[in-house]
Specification:
The complex is a heterodimer of chains A (147) and B (359).
Chain A: H1 3-19, H2 23-29, H3 42-55, H4 62-75, H5 85-97, H6 109-127, H7 131-146
Helix pairs in contact in A: 1-2, 1-3, 1-7, 3-5, 3-6, 3-7, 4-5
Chain B: E1 7-13, H1 17-28, E2 33-36, H2 44-47, H3 79-92, E3 97-98, E4 103-109, E5 112-117, E6 120-129, E7 136-137, E8 151-154, E9 168-172, H4 176-185, E10 190-194, E11 202-203, E12 206-207, E13 210-211, H5 212-218, E14 234-235, H6 239-244, E15 248-251, E16 254-258, E17 261-264, E18 269-270, E19 274-277, E20 281-282, E21 301-302, E22 305-306, E23 311-313, H7 330-349
Parallel strand pairs in B: 1-2, 1-6, 2-3, 6-23, 8-19, 9-10, 9-19, 10-15, 11-14
Antiparallel strand pairs in B: 4-5, 5-6, 7-20, 12-13, 16-17, 17-18, 21-22
Helix pairs in contact in B: 1-7
The chains are: A mainly alpha (147), B alpha/beta (359).
């Protein structure tokens, strides 16, 4: 297994546990992640983008993205202040339109993966995905990452 | 407050983190209360814990309502910091704490409650029992079979390595406390950690660059109902790495003590110089009105709302959520209890003859 493949697999395992709301599995599997690896965050980013495009198949205007981020932050019981709304909006825009939105590539990969993990969970819940759909999403993200 | 009132709308029994959080919310609601604590000072229970004790919640998740825990949010406070914080909290919000006021009995008295304390009696319309998740040290019955020549102490009496004579230390109980103490003693003693049959899931302190409790808070895990049977996770555990390095030995459950030896379930016999019981606590609730207790002698309540009207509980282990007994999360339960108390208080203090008249 190449470094990219094993990193992808580890990240998608972590995301998979999170989507299944297996918190213990999510936390335990996270120890396999390498935040210094060259591919860190790519697999989660791929899954996040897929989920965002499925959630918003017609795309979304900047105002709609801003409203979505507001709603997300408002739904948090705690730690909303730890998220930068502008950063989240850029992540969502990037996920919807593919490629890299201005500013995102310069941000801390750890901050980006944290936000994408939480947002992907929200998106998947909004899509109403059960275990089968979640597996399919992760499989497609793995294919997209390895391409 | 300097003297026990004869009557008070609300008596909060216990001025630790749970009681202080209740006092804060009641103060905010304008409901008069008194906080009665058995200790000689606020924070005494924390002060007595072992010297190197560190919270497994970072400062960001260790604050009571209205006052963030000071310092860097990513820092893990030690027990002395917790003591200072609790004292500051009580002072800052001018909470009516009476120390050295142990409540000896609590009895239903008409529509209210009669508290008998070491400084006399007090009648309260409503009561909050916030005496904490810890009670008396719990030691296995088989401990009586251990020779008096073997030094023993419970985690509640443990202070640090210098207290423990040289030699083999067997720590019985592998929860967070047992593991933290085992990790500390591994630097100076030969440590054997006896692990229970129940496997506690180990969780890293940091998950994807954030404290574990950050994730649990963001994901809403801290406010979910919790299965009482599910074992507590062990957070930031160093035992596996120390065991791999040969600095700690782990064995199975200790089942008996015979003279100078402890018996492991698999038949191994261990001769300890010292035994540390990391076997938890039991709470004696016999001071409560019997009507407040079930057949097992445990408080009757539903998520902190007592079976008897006007009685409430705070700080009990997993009372409502995983955070119910944790310093950084008990405030949620305290807010809920205070809201219920305030509603009941305003209902009983509204005079029927004054309806329609301006307040």
């Amino acid at each position: 297994m190449t470094g990219a493949t094993s990193a992808t697999s580890a990240e998608l395992d972590v995301l998979g546990a999170l989507l299944a709301f297996d918190f213990i599995g999510f936390a335990q599997k996270s120890t396999a992640l390498d935040p210094h690896g060259p591919h860190y965050g790519q697999a989660v980013a791929a899954a996040f983008g897929l989920a965002a495009r499925r959630r918003f198949p017609q795309g979304a205007t900047p105002q709609e993205i801003s409203g979505y981020v507001d709603g997300f932050l408002g739904s948090l019981e705690a730690c909303a202040e730890d998220f930068d709304p502008a950063f989240l909006e850029r992540l969502v825009a990037e996920g919807l339109h593919g490629g890299t939105a201005p500013g995102v590539e310069h941000l801390d990969p750890e901050t980006a993966i944290q936000a994408r993990l939480v947002l992907t969970l929200r998106l998947v819940r909004e899509l109403g995905y059960g275990p089968d759909e979640q597996r399919e999403l992760l499989a497609e993200a793995a294919l997209g990452t390895s391409a | 407050m300097s003297a026990l009132p004869a009557t008070v709308p609300v008596a909060v029994i216990g001025a630790g983190q749970s009681g202080l959080a209740a006092g804060y919310h009641l103060r905010q609601a304008g409901v008069r209360c008194v906080l009665l604590d058995a200790g000689s000072e606020v924070g005494e229970t924390w002060r007595r814990r072992w010297d190197s004790l560190t919270l497994f919640t970072s400062a960001q998740f260790s604050g009571l309502p209205g006052l963030p825990f000071p310092g860097d949010g990513a820092h893990y406070p030690g027990k002395d910091e917790v003591v200072s914080y609790l004292r500051d909290y009580a002072e800052r919000f001018d909470l009516p704490v009476l120390t050295d006021h142990r409540v000896l009995s609590l009895r239903r008295d008409g529509d209210g409650y009669l508290l008998s304390t070491t400084h006399g009696d007090c009648r309260a319309d409503q009561v909050v029992i916030a005496t904490g998740a810890f009670g008396a040290a719990q030691v296995p019955e088989f401990a009586a079979g251990l020779s008096p020549d073997v030094r023993t102490l419970h985690t509640s009496d443990y202070q640090g390595p210098s207290q423990v004579p040289p030699g083999t230390v067997v720590i019985v109980g592998d929860g967070n406390s047992g593991r933290q103490i085992a990790g500390e003693l591994a630097g100076s003693h030969s440590v054997v950690l006896s692990c229970s049959d129940t496997v506690s899931p180990p969780l890293p302190q940091t998950v994807v660059g954030r404290d574990m409790f950050w994730w649990m808070s963001v994901l809403g895990v801290m406010s979910l109902p919790v299965n009482m049977q599910a074992p507590d996770p062990v957070v930031g555990d160093r035992v596996p790495e120390l065991a791999e390095a040969g600095r700690i030995r782990t064995v199975g459950r200790i089942t008996a003590a015979e003279g100078a030896e402890l018996l492991v379930a698999d038949g191994e016999r261990i001769k300890p110089s010292t035994v540390i019981w990391a076997t938890g606590y039991r709470t004696d609730w016999s001071w409560l009105d019997p009507e407040m207790l079930d057949d097992a002698g445990q408080p009757r309540h539903t998520e902190g709302l007592g079976a008897l009207p006007g009685s409430y509980y705070l700080g009990l282990y997993r009372m409502r959520t995983r955070g119910s007994a944790l310093i950084g999360f008990v405030g949620h339960d305290a807010e809920r209890v205070a809201a219920a108390i305030t509603t009941a208080h305003r209902t009983t203090t509204t005079s029927p003859t004054a309806e329609g008249e301006p307040s």
